[in-house]
Automatic annotation (TrEMBL):
Source organism per UniProt: Phytophthora fragariae
Domain Reverse transcriptase residue range list: 1-96
Residue ranges crossing the lipid bilayer per the database entry: none
Protein name: Reverse transcriptase domain-containing protein
Domain of life: Eukaryota
Coiled-coil features, chain-numbered ranges: none
Pfam families: RVT_1
InterPro entries (alphabetical): DNA/RNA_pol_sf, Rev_trsase/Diguanyl_cyclase, RT_dom, Viral_Replic_Matur_Polypro
Amino acid sequence: MSYMTDEKIFTPRRVHQGCSDAAIHFQKTMEKCFATLLYKHRLVWIDDLLLYADDIDTYLDKLAELFSLLNDFGLKLSVKKSSLYQTEVKWCGKIIDANGVRHDSARIESLRAMPYPSTAGELQQFICAINWVRESLVDYARQPPPSSAN
């Protein structure tokens, strides 16, 4: 998107923060950057990256490939937010380890501790919060929403 004034045309080099399509654009861009690793050894959710492998040799090989891709696309990682060689990680609110993927128990407890909704806004907030764990709830789609229950 460019902006035209009476003097010049301005074309931003970066996505504007707060733009309604910014997150989608950023996600698609990250998926393109890491396409060779995506879903084989790498997961990307906006600016959260996860590299995984079955063994240390493969991990080191894919880590080198990751660093090469980061360099090729001019991307940087935060050392403070990075951790390497982990057997268990908390990523996007879930715990991932050799046994699979499960929800973070602290997050589940905070959902359980939510007060019963008393306004439409609180009900909407609860539904949005519970949607994060819906794939783990048996028959979630068959349950009537609280707003239509008698």
